[in-house]
Structure formats: C-alpha cells, structure tokens
C-alpha cells in the first residue's frame, strides 16, 4: 500500500494526465518506484587505488613479519629427538627382528638402541612413534571400521558393519574391534632407559593415559555394556583381530584403559592424514622444577619388535619432543609468514614508487568544459 | 525448440486413426442433437473450444517434468554419477548422500517449471471462461456460456467489440448487407478492418436447420470456401451490432491457435559458450581421473607384498593392480564430480529469473499511456541483450508513430505548407507531450455517471436489475475511459489539423462565390473518397483486454439481451435500439446534428450492445460539450492512419463527412449545408492499382463524378490532360512524405451505365472474377483531372534519433527494413539520424548486371575510404537497397560481396521488402557474419524477422499483438531499446558472465584440493573433507553469494552506461566471457587450490594430524578464499548484500555454525568420516587460525595485486585517453559535460578504471601508438 501511494504521487509530479483519470484508484501496472526494484539501492563501490591498496600491502607486511618471527622462534625452541629403529641396515640392532617378522610369531623379538641427548629436555616430553610410507589414508582402509561397534553398540558388536570386510568375522565369530584399521594396530612396545654416566640404567616412567582426545575416550569410544566391568564376559562371543596377539580386553590391566577405550587403540584409530605420520605413544611428565625431564646424557631404547613394515618399505621411528602452544616443531609456518610479509612489504614499496612517479601527472589534468 | 506434449501426439495419432485424413470437414449443426449425450453428438470428433497451453497436468507433472529435465545433458550426467555411486567396486562412501545434490537441483527446477506452467494454466482458464453467447434450442435464444463450452457446430453470436471465441462461419449479421467487420489485430497485427460476408443464402439467421458444411481440414494455409465468411478466433467484431454463425473450428484447431507456436526456448550465446566450457571441464576431469587411475595402478605395483593397509576384498583376495586402477577411474569420477558444477544450471536459471524481475520492474521502461511494462517473454536470453551487434528495425510503427500527420497540400499547382501544423508538431514532440495529455483528458468520459438517464433506459421490465447494471456499466465506462487513449488513429496528431490561412481564404472565397471549383472538389474528394465509417464514441475501437469482460456485469447484460432477443428474434434488434435512442434524444436540449434514417442503423448503431445504451446517450452529450475544433465532433473509423489524417484535414477546412451508408455519403460544407451524395460504386483499394475510387452522383448537379485517390505514380500516369507539370514537380519534392494525389473525373450517364453493366457482369462472374474486376476498374479509372496532392508525414517516435545514435555509439549496426518505397525510407532515415547529410549513400535498385558492377565498384572505393579516414573515423556510407535488388544481391554469386559491402556501411536501408525477405536478411547477416542480431518490429510483417533474429523485440504500440507474441521481449516504444540494451543488456551480460566464470572457478578450486590430496594417499580417492560438508559447501555455503552477485551486481551505474554507450562494446566483443577468461579463471583456481592444499600440508606434514582434522583447515581456507575472491570481483556492494553481511559474513558464519554443530552431534553418524569434535579441536588450536590467515592471503594476493597493477597501468594512460575521446569522437557538448563531471571528480582515474575495466587497455594503447596524443 505504501508503495502504491508513493508511486501515485510520483505520477502527479510528472504526468498530470493520468491523475485526471477519474481520481479513483485505478490499478496500473506501473512498477513500484522503490530503490530495491529500481536497483538504486545505495551501494559502496570499493575502489582499488594506490590509496587503498598500498596500505593493505604495508599492513600485511607489518603484521606478517612479526608473526613469522614469533613462530620461527617458538619452533626453534622446541626440542625434538628422532631415532629410526626399523632395522633395515645390517648394522642396526633391530636388523634381525626386522627380517624375521610375522604377525603371529609367539616369541617377541627384542632389540635395544642406544642414543644420547645433547640438550636436556625441560618440561613435559611427548614420546611418539612415527611410521613412514604407511598409507593410513587409503580409501578402503579408512572405511574399514565400525564406529558404532567402537561406541559400544551391542548389536554392532555381534554383527559388525559390512565395511569391515574381510576383517569382519573370524571363525564365524564377529571380530571386535573389526576392520582393517584395528587389525593393523601398531603393536611395538617401546621402553626408555636413562644410562647414568656410571652405567646404571633407570627406566623412565611413562604415562599412558591422556594421550587420546578426551572426547574420543569418553564419548566416541565405549566398551559394550559399560556397566559390566568384566570385559572378558562382554567380549565372550567375539574373536580378536587376526593380527592381534591378545584380545581387545587384554590390552591393559587397568580397567579404565582396557577394551575399546584403550588409549593406544584410540590413538591408532584416528587415522593419519599423510603417509608419514607420528602418533603419540607416551608422555614423560616433568618431575620437578629442579631437574629436567630428560637430562642430557645417554639413553637406551628397548624395542619389542612386532610391527612389520618391510613389505611397504616403511620406517619406524621413535620421537621425543617437547611441545609449545603451536604444537610440535615446525619451522615452515614461521618462514612462510616472514616470506609473505616481506613480499607484501616489497610490493608496497614498489607500488608506492610507481604511484609517486606517475600519480602526479594526473593531478594537473584539467578537462576544459 | 518447440515442445510437444507426448500425450497430444498420442491423441493426434489416435484421432487420425479414427478419422482418416479426409480433405473435407463435415460440420453438422448441433441444435438437433442438443439433448443427446456427448458420445452421440455428430461433431464429437472435433476438438472442443477449451484450450490448454500448459504442458503438465497435476498427475503427470512429476514424470513429465523429469522426462523433460533429462533432456539436459548435465542432468543425465549427474544422475549417472549418482547411480555410479551404487556400484560396489567403486567404493563410494555413502551412495545415498550422493543423490542429495541432484535431487535438490531437480526439485528446484521442477518448482520453477511448475510455477511457469501454472501461470500458463491461469491465463488459459481466464480465456476459457470468457463469456459468449450460444444458441440453445431449448430456450430458443442465445444463452450465455463460456468459451470452453463452444463446440464445433454450435451457433454463436458475437456482439460488437467482442472477441470471437472460435473460427465461425458467418451466417448472419445485423448489417442489412450481410457484412461484418472484423479487426484482426490480435491475430496478424493489422489494424485495418476486414470485411466478412454472410455465406450466400443465409441472409437471415437460420434457426434450426442441420447444416452440413464442407471445409478443408485446418492447416496453416487455409483457403477455399469460407475464407471471406470466416470470423477468426481472437479477432474482434467491429462496427457490427452483432454477428452470428456456426462454429467450424474450435480450440486448438482454430487459426490463431495453429499459428501460435507457444513459448520459445532459445539458448543464449553465453550458454552455448558455457556448454563448451563444461565440456572442457569434462575433459579436465577425465584427465584428472586418468592420472588417478594410472597413479593408483603404478602405486600398487611398487609393493612386493601387500602391506597391511591395503584391504583385500571380502574373500581375502587382492585386486590386480591394473583392475584396481580401472576401478579407481570411476571412483575418482565420483570424488571429483563437483568439477562439473551441478548447481550451475539451476543457479543460472535463478539468476535469470532475478534479472527478468528487475527488467520488468524498471519504471523507465514502463509506458504510462498504454499501462504496460516491458515484457520478457523469453526467459533465458537476458544476457544476449548485452551482446547485440546488428539491429534490424522495422520502420512504420517502430521508428515512427504510425500516426499520420497532414503536412502539406497542393491544389491547382499552389503549395500550402501548413506551417502551423508543422510547428504544432514540433511543440508536441518537444514540450513533454503535455498538450497531448490534456487533449486526452478532454476526450475522456466524465467520471460521474449520470444515474437518472440510465434508469430511464431501464424503466419497465428491468428495474430490479438497475443497480447491478449501473455498477457493471460504470465499471465498463471506466474501462472505456481507460481505453479512450488507445483509440486507433484518432490521436490529436491526426484529428487536429490547423488549417493553412492562405488556403482557408481561398476556400472561403470559392465557397462564397461560385459554390464549385477545384478547391471545393479537392476537399470533397478528401472527405468522401475513402472507406472511413462514422461511428459514435462508444463504438470506437478499444484495445480490449481479455479480462475486461466482467462476469457479473456480463450476466446482467445478458439478461437484458435475452429479453430483447425474445421480443425481436432477428433483425429487429437494431430497431429497438433506435427507438430507445429516439426516446432519449427527445429529452435532450441540444439537437443532434444528423438526421436519423431507418436504413442508417448499421453505420450509426455499431454500438456496443453490452453497454446497455446508457453510455451512448452520455457520449452524444459529451460530443457537444467537448467539441474540439468548434463544431460538433464526429468519430471516424478509419482503415488506415493516412485515411484518418486526410479526413480530419478535410474536416479542418469545414468539409465534414457526417455519415456514410452503403448508398449515401453526407458531407457538411463549411457553410453548414449538407450535401448528400448518392454512392454509385466504390472501387476499393488494392495493392496493384494502388488507388481507390468512389463514384457518386452530385446531389445538385446530378452529375456522376468519380473521385480517385492514390499514390502519386498511380494517379499521374493516368491523368487525362497533362497540364500540371509543376504539380508533379512539387509532389516529387516531397519525397519524404507519403504523397497522396486526388483526382476527379466526370462520367457521363451513358458511359457509366455501359460500364456499370460490364461491372455487374464481372461481379457475378465465377471464373477469373478478380481479373475482370481489375479490368473494369482500370477501364474507368483513366484520364483524370488532377485536383491536388496531399503530403502526409508519419511522425517519428519520441527520441528515435537519440536512440539510434546511442545504439550506433554502442557499436551496433542499425538496419532499417521496410515495405515502404525508398524515398520515404530515406527521408525517415535522415530524420532519425540513421543517415547523415554528409554521408555517401549508395542506392541500389537496378537490374542484375548493373548491380554486380555496382557491388564491385562500391566495395573498391570502400577500401580506399577506410585507408584515408583512419581507424578513428567510421566510414560513413549508407546503403539503400530495394526488395527486388535485395533478392538479387542475396543470390549465391553476389551474396559474399553484398555482405562484405554491408559490413562497411554505416547504415543499410532495405525498402520494399517482404516479410520473408526481412527474415532472410536477418538470417543472412547472422550466419555469414556470425554476429548477434536483434530484430525489432511492431507488425505482423515483422514476425518472421523477429523469429529469425537472436533476440526478437516486439513493439506493442499501434498495431496488434502479433509481433509481441512472437517476440522475446516486448517494449512499447523504440526509445526503450536504448535502456533495455545499454543498461539491462550490459548488466545482465556482465552479471551472468561473471557468475558463470565464478562458478567454474569455484568448483575447480575446490575439487583440486581433493585432487592434490590423491598424491598423498596412493591415489585411492580418499577425501579428507567430510562428504556432507562437501555437499553443503557447494549447495549452501558458496552458492547464494554468486547468485546474489548475478542478480544484483552493478558493474557500472546506469547513468554512466547511458551517457557512454561505448561501454556496450565490451559485451559485443564478449569481453566478459571469453575462452581466455575461462582459462585464466581455471588457472587461478589451480593456483589457489595449490596454495590451499600445500600450505596446510607443509604445516602439518609429519605431525600426528588425522585425516579430517587435516581437511578442516583446507575446507575453511578454501571457503575464505572463494568468498573473498568474489568480494574482489564485486564492483559495487549493494547494501542488500553488503560486504560484511550477506556475501562474506553470512556464508562464513553459516559454515562455522553448521560445521561446529555437525562435528558436535555426529559421533558415529557418517561412518567413513570421523568428524566428531574435530572442528572444536581445530578451533581451539591457534595454528588453525595462523594457517587460515596465511593461506587466504597467499591465495588471493595475485588476483588482488593483478587488479591493482592494472589499475596503476591504466591510469597512466587515462588522461590521454579521455582527451582523445572528447576531442576525437564526441559530438555533443552534453556528453562532454557528463564526462567533465566524471573527470572533475577528484578520483577521476578511478572512475575510469571501473568503467573501462581493463578491457579498453589494448585499444588505448592502439590509439596512443597512432600518435593521436595531443
């Protein structure tokens, strides 16, 4: 209604003729003269000029360079130590273990590697195992799991999803946990010993809880019928994954870390994005402020070598790392920020130069009317 | 593409089966069978009159719409992909989810189609429910029914000014001569009245006789029996109180429906181009999939034994690597399918709907007079408006008003210029048409309806109905008042003629002295030598809209009518009205000037019966009150505008034709004396003779006089005594105006009798009737005495020269194709600035051989001209070619040469061309030069041309709707073309082009993220982004902004576009959307996807990040990039989609909200992907933000920088460019001012940068290199 009376007024102003059409409200097909319909809405036209673009370049440069420096410094302060224990080399202590591998060998193969840390690791140290050339992101591998089984669903426990094939049933019993991901779970055991200068070895205490996401441990992963503390009974009618040595309810003695909510298992189940990845294994907690968590000196890594990687030319590593707000050590982001910031700044300077050189010519132009 | 309902085809096949193709059609009257059931009706096999142009029915909507949608390759492709998802070896994650996008797309399109179809259904219903009168045997009278109830074999009565419901064989009219007039404007656009005669032998209304008629089966060339007795559906009965006849063709079999090919689907240029680009995308996709497949096979080959992460099939067997690679190809297709933008097609349709909405809403394109907006009839070629290179225009009615103005006359060798008339014309065209408007007001009916008079009419039997009748007729009167302005050929231009002072003195002198003389004869000829009918105001033609017929009112009127029919039965109807009229007239104080005879009932009483006589009284009263030129006003029904102009000119000099009956013509002389001529014969106008004659007996002298009028050539060659050489000369000087010569011949009694006998014989002849009639006419029409000549001008429409100039400046070639003679066309061409006086004009109207020489010769100086005028000056060559020459020029051997010549011509005028030639020319240019063509016309003769062109524009003005029906866009004035093309065309083009490019860019940028990932997952077609989020990304997060962009973006403001028509060239040369633009966009997409993938990759490489945690920043980053890329593209942020609002913030907000909600809820809902808590985890990590910021900046830096660099480059040159522009090419100070305004703006170069948008860059450089720098 508003619109029509408005347009009627307009009409009066311009065409006195139509107003004389009897004065009654004859409906015309005249479009409403509103800003929206006439496409006259106020518009802001951003203009790319030296005045608006140059500051943008400078601002980007000025913000990015400090960020980059900050990131770079932080990354550099992170201490990281990495040791490859695959044992492909003849000289490697794990060579023998790596040669005679089988998923189902009953006698565990052990090997010990010695290394030394040049610098003490202050604060909490995170211990990772790293795998290379392991395509946890393969399409069919990623699919091969049953989330509802892992979430404690009774029916899925008895009858796992089709996606788990061929790791769905074993000897007519449903596999728990089913699927290729679970089946290929990393099963090396790593132990770390500090070798005193006098030669005595002290095992470094690990914390194995708290390495998985809180939500995974408490929401996503659940044992079936969690009211029943007897996991053996719960998993009675299920088979263990083919490659596993022990069933899922024997992963740990701690009932809070056993069955599907075993944190090593949860960590493994969160499939890695890239073929070279690390997964958190243990945390070495800082004891007190006086002594570093891992003082400099010699250490020995005792590996129970179970996990075969030779078929895909994979590598296995043990990584010790401290952690900052930006996670693990990664100099890339800092360098990238510094580079981009510098480029922007440089471009800004160049453009400023061009603008000054040629911009003035324009000011004197005067169009005669 | 014409769409045929498969059901209709089926039905046709079926009927054909039962009704074998017989060349005759038997129609039996329905009356004897009225009580029978439908199955037993004799005419049951013929179609009913109900029409249905909608495609779908309720029950068949879904299957049929789907069937139709699958005509689109893209839809088949997407459905094929969705089905591919269900193939097990392909290893799709969730096949059901893959169906969602295509279902949404199909549903959206279906809703749109359904809505359009529903609107068609509504108009059909409206038409089907229009009331009409059908004879009912039971009630022994015509009863009111709806159009849809009409069947073949029914007797139907049509009243004056009513639209004919079906093709009717005329059996009765109220006219004593058995004639019915019909206006076929709705059908073929011709406004002239067509005469239809009652079938011989049915002079009175046949009551209940079963009639069998033989007619040919309906097809497009309907000939034979009945053509001059057929009233065609959609036409309007004129000047005849009522007509009745038997329905022979109904519904879809009627001529109008057969001619109506339904809505048209054209594919626009952009769409055609886009389809090839879609193919490019398919090829690209194919290569990417191939890389994936090969990569996977090779990757598998590297393993000596199968690692634990390669999952065997359910039997524990591993697929051989080659086969796995083969399967992987299809998996890849599914993964990367988004490469082909599934939502592009539906987005384009949505955008076009939005664009059409804004075009039709444009108040500048609204015509106040006709109350009409611009109509968009073709829904999918809006952007073609922005790419037109050739404009083909009709002349009469398109460039000109088709309103004839009496410009000058020449009597006895003396020329009378009528300068006042000319001056008045100038005033009208100049001063905002105020004068015209006031005159309209005067002719309008008084708003208050005198009730008392009405009641007088209805005393007696219909008192109870009074109030309703009053209400109904008041409504009608309003309609009539509205329609007054639409009266054909009675605009003030034609009606108001200011007499020339010299001439009027001369006339007065002769009048006073001798009572005869050439001057008087001249004006008598003007007054009577025509076929103009006199009518009352209410009976005048109105542009009746279909919905005018008010149902309630019509019912009431029907009651009255039925009563009247009962009492009078047949021909007495007219008498009743006459008597009522007499009764009324008695009460009037002002005497009506004309005498009323019994036998004049046809001419005068051609009134609208449904107006229930009341209005007639008022109108006669009004006549006296609002007399314009001093004396009483008579309304003329002219067949053509020039006749109207002439008779009004005669009236201005006091020679008023008061009435015309078949036997008499009464003329009032300046001294108020009435002369009543007896009409002995009328030799009607035809196109071969190009003249008409009327043979009358002078009431005083009893001489038999033949007045003849005709085209100058048609008269001059048959003059008896060649005494007036100077006359001829002066007529030839008027080549611009339509010259009509008048002549007189006195025939002796014997001569006439002898001729009359021959004539009668010819009339009754059966064989070679036409030839013999022609012969007799030619015999008598000879050795005239020339009385004088008149010059009539068809006034140009408002701002036609400006429009043409603007179109020219916009780089369009304007051609005029007209049926008129070259002289008229050239004159119009000069006056509308199509040709300039300094132009070199070639006129071709010669025989074949000469033409060839001319063509070759003409193109030689052409080359030299170009060389010396230089690139800045267009060679000004005009080409005028007439129809016969044109057909020669278009013959095979000359056509190349002709086209080559036309390319260099500034203007081409084709005269005396037939409608078919018009379309042939359009087709020729379109095909030979591969240009976008636009045809604009208003009449039926332009239909072919309109349909042949890429864009057809109908002008709905003076002539009917035929052109509009065939057109893609309908405007009311030629000047609207300027805004339609330069503003809306430009906008639509740039909007759509940008949007399409953006869509390609967007999808490629997104899909490539997935592709790069394949290099790090063994080419196993893993997606690191959750499948649902991928779908949402395309359907919701990133689709609304480009659609808004496509509808609302304003690259340049309309005022700039109008003041600088040159900007249009951008669209003409397809600079908004080229192959290079496409590839640059694809390259940009590749770059951006590389950045979006590899910055996160290097950041997270070697860390403990999970697949979907890795995908989250990529997804986010590409959303930012894609949205901000659009933000860079947008040139004007309309407040509706302000930057910080709809376009960027909303999608980003929606993205975060949806993703957060999804990753909080979805614990194990979407099995393969694992979104739970990932987004929250990521958003708690500062690295996520750092990655997002860096990636976005790096991804967008080049395009941003690029834009700016171009800015910088261009503004160095801009000043020089402006300078050249103003001094070299601008012609008008006004445009200079608008430029000056832009330039004096402090940000001058910025404005220019936006306008020019870098596409002018090469041109500027070219200009600069030519040393034009001042």
TrEMBL record, chain A:
It comes from the Eukaryota. Belongs to the CDC50/LEM3 family. This is Cell cycle control protein. The keyword Kinase does not apply. One of its GO terms (biological process) is phospholipid translocation. Pfam families: CDC50 (PF03381). It is found in: Apical cell membrane; Cytoplasmic vesicle, Secretory vesicle membrane; Golgi apparatus; Membrane. Residues 1-25, 145-169 are annotated as: Disordered. InterPro entries: CDC50/LEM3_fam (IPR005045). The gene is LOC109047260. Keywords: Cell membrane, Cytoplasmic vesicle, Disulfide bond, Glycoprotein, Golgi apparatus, Lipid transport, Membrane, Transmembrane, Transmembrane helix, Transport. Its main location: membrane. It is a multi-pass membrane protein. The chain crosses the membrane at residues 47-73, 332-354. GO terms for cellular component: apical plasma membrane; endoplasmic reticulum; Golgi apparatus; transport vesicle membrane.
From TrEMBL, chain B:
It is found in: Membrane. Mg(2+) binds at residues 394, 396, 938, 942. It catalyses: ATP + H2O + phospholipidSide 1 = ADP + phosphate + phospholipidSide 2. Its EC number is 7.6.2.1. Its cofactor is Mg(2+). GO terms for molecular function: ATP binding; ATP hydrolysis activity; ATPase-coupled intramembrane lipid transporter activity; magnesium ion binding. The active site is at residue 394. It comes from the Eukaryota. Keywords: ATP-binding, Magnesium, Membrane, Metal-binding, Nucleotide-binding, Translocase, Transmembrane, Transmembrane helix. NCBIfam families: ATPase-Plipid, ATPase_P-type. Belongs to the cation transport ATPase (P-type) (TC 3.A.3) family. Type IV subfamily. This is Phospholipid-transporting ATPase.
């Amino acid at each position: 209604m508003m619109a029509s009376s408005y347009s009627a007024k307009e009409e009066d102003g311009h065409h006195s003729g139509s107003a004389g059409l009897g004065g009654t409200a004859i409906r015309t097909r005249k479009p409403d003269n509103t800003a929206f319909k006439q496409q006259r809405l106020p518009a802001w036209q951003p203009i790319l000029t030296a005045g608006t673009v140059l500051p943008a370049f400078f601002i980007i440069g000025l913000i990015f360079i400090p960020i980059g420096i900050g990131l770079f410094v932080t990354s550099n302060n992170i201490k990281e130590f990495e040791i490859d224990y695959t044992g492909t080399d003849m000289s490697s202590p794990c060579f023998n273990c790596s040669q005679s591998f089988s998923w189902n060998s009953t006698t565990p193969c052990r090997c010990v590697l010695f290394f030394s840390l040049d610098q003490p690791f202050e604060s909490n140290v995170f211990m990772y195992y790293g795998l290379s050339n392991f395509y946890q992101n393969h399409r069919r591998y990623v699919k091969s799991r049953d989330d509802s089984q892992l979430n404690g669903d009774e029916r899925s426990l008895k009858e796992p999803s089709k996606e788990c094939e061929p790791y769905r049933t074993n000897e007519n019993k449903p596999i728990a946990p089913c699927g290729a991901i679970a089946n290929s779970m990393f099963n090396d055991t790593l132990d770390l010993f500090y070798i005193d200068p006098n030669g005595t070895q002290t095992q470094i205490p690990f914390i194995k809880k708290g390495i998985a996401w809180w939500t995974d441990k408490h929401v996503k992963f659940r044992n079936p019928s969690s009211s029943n503390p007897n996991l053996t009974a719960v998993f009675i009618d299920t088979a263990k994954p083919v490659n596993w040595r022990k069933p899922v309810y024997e992963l740990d003695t701690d009932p809070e870390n056993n069955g599907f909510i075993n944190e090593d298992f949860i960590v493994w189940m969160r499939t890695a994005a890239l073929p070279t990845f690390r997964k958190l294994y243990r945390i070495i907690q800082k004891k007190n402020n006086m002594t570093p968590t891992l003082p400099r000196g010699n250490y020995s890594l005792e590996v129970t070598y179970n996990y075969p990687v030779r078929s895909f030319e994979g590598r296995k590593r043990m990584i010790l790392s401290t952690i900052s707000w930006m996670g693990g050590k990664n100099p890339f982001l800092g360098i990238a920020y510094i580079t981009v910031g510098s480029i922007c700044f440089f471009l800004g300077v160049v453009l400023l130069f061009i603008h000054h050189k040629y911009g003035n010519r324009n000011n004197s132009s005067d169009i005669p009317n | 593409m014409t769409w045929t309902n498969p059901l209709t085809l089926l039905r046709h096949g079926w009927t054909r089966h039962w009704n074998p193709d017989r060349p005759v059609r038997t129609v039996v009257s329905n009356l004897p069978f009225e009580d029978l059931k439908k199955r037993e009706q004799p005419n049951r096999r013929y179609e009913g009159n109900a029409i249905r142009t909608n495609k779908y029915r309720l029950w068949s909507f879904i299957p049929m719409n789907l069937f139709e949608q699958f005509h689109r390759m893209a839809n088949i492709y997407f459905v094929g992909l969705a089905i591919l998802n269900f193939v097990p070896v392909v290893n799709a994650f969730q096949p059901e989810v893959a169906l969602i996008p295509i279902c949404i797309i199909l549903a959206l399109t279906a809703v749109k189609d359904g809505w359009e179809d529903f609107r068609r259904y509504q108009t059909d219903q409206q038409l089907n429910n229009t009331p009409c009168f059908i004879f009912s045997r039971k009630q022994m009278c015509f009863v009111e029914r709806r159009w849809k109830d009409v069947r073949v074999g029914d007797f139907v009565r049509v009243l004056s000014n009513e639209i004919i419901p079906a093709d009717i064989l005329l059996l009765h009219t109220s006219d004593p001569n058995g004639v019915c007039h019909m206006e076929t404007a709705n059908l073929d656009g011709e406004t002239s009245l067509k005469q239809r005669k009652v079938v011989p032998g049915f002079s009175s209304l046949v009551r209940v006789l079963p009639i069998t008629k033989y007619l040919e089966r309906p097809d497009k060339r309907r000939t034979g029996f009945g053509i001059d007795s057929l009233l065609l559906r959609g036409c309007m009965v004129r000047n005849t109180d009522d007509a009745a006849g038997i329905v022979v063709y109904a519904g879809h079999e009627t001529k109008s429906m057969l001619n109506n090919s339904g809505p048209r689907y054209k594919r626009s240029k952009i769409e055609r181009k886009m389809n090839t680009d879609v193919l490019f995308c398919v090829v690209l996709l194919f290569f990417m999939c191939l890389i994936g497949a090969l990569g996977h096979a090779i990757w598998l080959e590297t393993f000596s034994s199968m690692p634990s992460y390669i999952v065997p099939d359910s039997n524990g067997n591993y697929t051989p690597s080659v086969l796995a690679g083969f399967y992987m190809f299809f998996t890849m297709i599914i993964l990367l399918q988004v490469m082909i933008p599934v939502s592009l097609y539906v987005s384009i349709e949505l955008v076009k709907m939005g664009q059409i909405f804004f075009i039709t809403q444009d108040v500048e394109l609204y015509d106040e007079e006709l109350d009409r907006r611009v109509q968009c009839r073709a829904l999918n070629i809006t952007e073609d408006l922005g790419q037109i290179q050739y404009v083909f225009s009709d002349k009469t009615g398109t460039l000109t008003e088709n309103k004839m103005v009496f410009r000058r006359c020449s009597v006895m060798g003396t020329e009378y210029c009528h300068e006042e008339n000319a001056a008045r014309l100038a005033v009208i065209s100049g001063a905002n048409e105020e004068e015209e408007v006031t005159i309209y007001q005067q002719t309008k009916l008084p708003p208050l309806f005198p009730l008392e008079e009405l009641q007088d009419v209805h005393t007696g039997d219909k008192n109870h109905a009074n109030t309703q009748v009053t209400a109904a007729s008041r409504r009608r009167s309003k309609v009539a008042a509205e329609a007054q302005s639409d009266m054909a050929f009675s605009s003030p231009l034609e009606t108001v003629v200011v007499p020339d002072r010299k001439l009027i003195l001369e006339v007065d002198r002769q009048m006073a002295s001798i009572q005869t003389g050439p001057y008087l004869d001249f004006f008598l000829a003007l007054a009577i030598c025509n076929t103009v009918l006199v009518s009352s105001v209410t009976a005048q033609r109105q542009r009746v809209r279909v919905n005018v017929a008010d149902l309630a009112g019509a019912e009431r009127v029907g009651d009255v009518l039925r009563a009247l029919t009962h009492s009078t039965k047949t021909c007495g109807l007219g008498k009743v009205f006459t008597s009522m009229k007499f009764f009324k007239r008695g009460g009037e104080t002002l005497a009506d000037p004309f005498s009323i005879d019994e036998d004049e009932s046809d001419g005068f009483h051609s009134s609208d019966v449904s107006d229930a006589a009341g209005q007639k009284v008022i109108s006669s009263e009004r006549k006296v009150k609002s007399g314009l030129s001093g004396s009483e006003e008579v309304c003329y029904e002219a067949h053509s505008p020039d006749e109207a102009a002439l008779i009004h000119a005669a009236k201005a000099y006091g020679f008023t034709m008061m009435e015309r009956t078949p036997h008499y013509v009464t003329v009032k002389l300046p001294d108020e004396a009435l002369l009543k001529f007896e009409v002995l014969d009328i030799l009607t106008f035809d196109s071969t003779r190009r003249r008409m004659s009327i043979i009358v007996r002078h009431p005083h002298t009893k001489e038999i006089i033949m007045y003849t009028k005709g085209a100058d050539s048609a008269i001059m060659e048959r003059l008896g005594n060649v005494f007036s050489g100077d006359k001829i000369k002066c007529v030839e000087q008027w080549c611009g105006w339509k010259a009509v010569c008048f002549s007189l011949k006195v025939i002796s009694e014997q001569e006439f009798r002898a001729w009359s006998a021959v004539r009668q014989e010819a009339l009754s002849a059966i064989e070679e009737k036409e030839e013999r009639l022609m012969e007799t006419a030619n015999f008598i029409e000879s050795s005239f005495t020339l009385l004088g000549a008149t010059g009539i001008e068809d006034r140009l429409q408002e701002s036609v020269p400006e429009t043409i100039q603007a179109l020219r400046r916009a780089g369009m070639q304007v051609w005029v194709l007209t049926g008129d003679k070259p002289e008229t066309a050239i004159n119009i061409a000069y006056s509308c600035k199509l040709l300039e006086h300094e132009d070199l004009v070639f006129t071709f109207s010669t025989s074949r051989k000469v033409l060839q020489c001319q063509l070759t010769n003409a193109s030689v100086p052409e080359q030299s001209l170009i060389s010396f005028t230089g690139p800045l000056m267009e060679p000004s060559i005009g080409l005028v070619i007439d129809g016969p020459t044109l057909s020669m020029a278009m013959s095979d051997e000359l056509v190349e040469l002709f086209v080559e010549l036309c390319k260099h011509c500034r203007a081409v005028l084709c005269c005396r061309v037939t409608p078919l030639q018009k379309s042939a020319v359009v087709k020729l240019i379109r095909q030979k030069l591969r240009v976008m063509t636009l045809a604009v016309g208003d009449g039926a003769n332009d239909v072919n041309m309109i349909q042949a062109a890429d864009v057809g524009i109908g002008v709905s003005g003076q002539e009917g709707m035929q052109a509009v029906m065939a057109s893609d866009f309908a405007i009311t004035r030629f000047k609207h073309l300027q805004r339609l093309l330069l503003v809306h065309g430009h906008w639509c083009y740039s909007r759509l082009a940008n949007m399409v490019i953006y869509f390609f860019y967007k999808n490629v940028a997104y899909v490539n993220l997935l592709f790069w990932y394949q290099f790090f997952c063994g080419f196993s077609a893993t997606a690191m982004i959750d499948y649902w989020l991928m779908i949402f990304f395309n359907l919701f997060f990133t689709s609304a902004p480009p659609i808004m962009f496509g509808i609302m973006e304003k690259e340049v403001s309309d005022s700039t576009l109008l003041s600088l028509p040159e900007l249009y060239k951008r669209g003409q040369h397809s600079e908004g959307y080229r192959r290079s633009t496409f590839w640059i966009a694809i390259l940009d997409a590749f770059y951006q996807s590389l950045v979006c993938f590899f910055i996160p990759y290097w950041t997270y490489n070697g860390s403990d990040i999970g697949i979907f945690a890795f995908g989250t920043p990529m997804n986010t980053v590409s959303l930012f990039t894609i949205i901000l890329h659009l933000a860079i593209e947008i040139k004007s942020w309309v407040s509706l989609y302000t930057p910080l609002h709809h376009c960027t913030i909303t999608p980003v907000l929606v993205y975060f909200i949806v993703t957060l909600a999804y990753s909080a809820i979805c614990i194990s809902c979407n099995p393969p992907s694992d979104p739970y808590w990932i987004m929250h985890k990521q958003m708690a990590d500062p690295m996520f933000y750092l990655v997002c910021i860096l990636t976005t900046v790096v991804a967008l830096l080049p395009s941003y920088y690029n834009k700016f660099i171009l800015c910088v480059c261009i503004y160095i040159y801009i000043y020089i460019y402006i300078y050249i522009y103003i001094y070299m090419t601008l012609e008008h100070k006004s445009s200079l001012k608008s430029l000056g305004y832009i330039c004096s703006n402090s940000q001058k170069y910025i404005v220019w940068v936006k306008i020019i948008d870098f596409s002018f860059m090469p041109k500027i450089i070219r200009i600069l290199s030519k040393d034009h720098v001042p």
